[in-house]
Amino acid sequence: MTGLATAFGSGAMTNSIADLENAKAILVIGSNTTEQHPVIGTRIRRAARKGTKVILADPRAIDLANIAAIHLRHRAGTDLALLNGLAHVILKEGLEDKEFIANRTEGFETWRSTVEAYTPERVSDITGVPAQDIITAARLFATNSPATICYAMGITQHTVGHNNVLAVANLTMLTGNIGKPGGGVAPLRGQNNVQGACDVGGLPNFYTGYQRVADQGARAKFEKAWGASLSPQPGLTVGEMLNAAHDGRIKAMWIVGENIAMSDPDAAHVRAALEHLDFLVVQELFMTETAQLADVVLPAASFAEKDGTFTNTERRVQRVRKAVAPPGQARADWQIVCDVARHVVSSFKALELKGSDNLKPETWNYETPSQIMDEIASLTPSYAGISFERIETRGLQWPVPNSTHPGTPLLHTEKFSRGKGLFSPVEHQEPAELPDSTYPFTLTTGRILQHYHTGSMTRRVAGLEQLAPEERVEVNPDDAARLGLADGDWVRVSSRRGTIESRAWVTDRVGRGLVFMTFHYAEALSNVLTNTAVDPVAQSPELKVCAVSVEKATKS
Amino acid sequence: MPINLTINGKPVQAREGQTVLEVCWENHISLPTLCHHPDLTPVGACRLCVVEVEKMRGLIASCTLPATEGMVVRTETPKVVEERKFILEMLLTDHPNDCMTCESNGDCELQNAVYQYQVPWPEHKGARHNYPAGADPNPFVFTDFNKCILCTRCVRACAEIQGRNVWGVAFRGFNDRIVAGADVTMLEAGCESCGACAAYCPTGALTDKPSRGQARSYQMKKVTTTCVYCGVGCQFDLNVRSGRVVKVTSNPKAPVNGMALCVKGRYGYEFIHHPDRLTKPLVKKDGAFVETTWEEALSLIGKKFAQVKKENGADAFATLASAKATNEENYLIQKFTRVVMGTNNVDHCARL
Description:
The structure holds 2 protein chains of 2 kinds.
Chain A: H1 2-8, E1 25-29, H2 33-36, H3 38-49, E2 53-57, E3 70-72, H4 79-92, H5 98-104, E4 105-106, H6 108-115, H7 120-127, H8 131-143, E5 147-151, H9 153-156, H10 161-174, E6 185-187, H11 194-199, H12 216-226, H13 238-246, E7 252-256, H14 260-263, H15 267-275, E8 279-284, E9 296-299, E10 308-311, E11 316-320, H16 333-351, H17 369-379, E12 396-397, E13 421-422, E14 441-446, H18 462-467, E15 472-475, H19 477-483, E16 490-494, E17 499-506, E18 514-518, E19 546-552
Parallel strand pairs in A: 1-2, 1-5, 2-3, 4-13, 5-6, 7-8, 8-9, 14-18, 15-17
Antiparallel strand pairs in A: 10-11, 11-12, 14-19, 15-18, 16-17, 16-19
Chain B: E1 3-7, E2 10-14, H1 20-26, E3 50-53, E4 59-61, E5 72-74, H2 78-93, H3 109-116, E6 141-143, H4 153-161, E7 167-170, E8 177-180, H5 196-200, E9 206-208, E10 221-226, E11 235-241, E12 244-250, H6 263-267, E13 282-285, E14 288-291, H7 294-312, E15 317-320, H8 327-341, E16 346-347
């Protein structure tokens, strides 16, 4: 998100999902789309059926490799070099969109001098992709216009995640693929409402609609609306919170609907941090690994048991509707937040806490989610025209600046959100942890089609469990032969942070030296192994690369 | 340039490229179909949509007939009706007469057509297929090819909607049948269990397995909502009976996905009523959770949060909002953290 915000002024998907079928070429990098965003994956397959050239860049031979015009199988953690290499070829062959660059962008010349060093030969040395394939892919991308780039966590979950995104943005602007149907950049957001959670201020540095906490004007606006004085100091990210909990700076936490004991890197560290808290409240559907560490667990309603909205990856705000009652005494999160707020404010009064005079329990008497959306709309320019009434039958794509605006399927048509698009020079940098003699393999992580994240929901669906009952570490056949492994054998995978045991899937989906795991299975959890190193700007952890050892194990 | 034609004596206009069937439907002239579906390439296989056209010989399948200038079409002549009855009767000669227990009863396009044309159950002494029902082990799709009418909607849905090619037609003549891959199981043929084939099947040949026997379509209330899994934003209908979600069905009006869904969206709803669901607030005492009341849990939380702020300062508190929760909920969570607790320590798994 930070990368696209730097380049374009807005961190969201530029075009619409349906628009993918208008692309003449689709570069998919760092996205196993048919498994992680399956219905977008089917759009890509449909496009390919109609002749769209799919260029796949992925260390693994994922499903999309079957329909790709070319598969660039680069070494994990070398996306940036590959993207710069594609740009190099496009410039060298004069395939860039000169008019677009001249009229719509800035910083081109400075950037160009960086890319000059990324010859196909050098990029081939870094990435392991044959130089000729880099040239072929660059030509495919540049000569099949409009072209779009789909990426996901395979780009962002690196210590160079921010720079990777900038390299994606550079390549898009170089070929003039912004502001037109069939073009654009599609950062595919992982969770159902990760876009919305960001949009409405679920971030330490932003209020709703990416209005900055550190901006005095924005702060004054929210202080007035909320009738409270607000901290000018941006807060901590998840990773920073855990470190702060670990060393005692954070004493209490409230975790709503997240299972960080499984989903975050270095699970032992996460666990230790949460155990170190004086007081932890977890609000959940199930007794998750995180909830087990709590002092108080509150039962929450599921998506089928409440009203509200989710915002999808193409910025479409859509209705969520209550179909059934929550089980037992479970309640919707929005109701619980109101209750907690009233109780905390009352306790402030009891403790005679200074500065709490202006806090009123009665300001937390929201009656409906629709009323809350009206408040969001009143404070958020991009949501200003959104109301439950308007999205009753069909969701709207933000920005929706007023109550008659039809929504914005395509961003940056006349100009970028920031004015001109910015080319940013970015250089290849190796991942934080590379294989060595003790940990000779690279572990990369992700998800599979049948399960979702930490499995708290999908592992409770019998049919999905039947399809994918256990972790299977993907190991290349050559490596397996060297390790004396047969398909289905048990392996022990270790990193500097921990050890897990799991069955192996001997498959050439992974190249030599690479192993792949999911984070769906508590009993064989990749995040016991993963590295907490983060991108300095985006703060995203390097879940896509860490060093591990793999050995045969015997399991009774 | 609009195309002018006459249907059942009424002048209507068509656009370039429209078929006679599309023009009829657009003008509220109902025509029965089985193999046709607006999302899929027309194949003209079932011939139930036949019409009479002046100056054209015989009866013509309207789903593959382009509308042309001056065409005069009749959709319900005695000849047409007789033909449709004959087609339906032929289909019934090799169809189980088990609507009473059939999963698709009430939601079956064959049943609807037979009802509309009042086709009596045929006396038939000849051969019938006797395929084992439920033979495919896929956990989500139930197969019963005795009910297959070879319309090939499943074949086209898999290829054209899902971009997979699991289904095909094999063998010849009476032995014609739908097979997965080279007559293997669906999963062996590369099935992703998206259920599109079942969603498009007009009969009970392919149905959703987990909801078998749970409810008739007319016993369920449909509630349109947005999927809780990934960020695509697919919409679908939760089918509710007696306060329980018993099935998910595609909603063709869903703006992002239309009829398409993935295995988790269509079949991943069982967690909603899972016995593991938390139903009461819990508080940890001596290392073990004990049930408590909302009032007690909230009082404790209120006191503890307030105490931390008073003793350790606002920044000793942090909240994790949720990419699974709604916009309205996330808004309140960050507002609470900023306004009540006085810190900007609010984040969520945006980077996962």
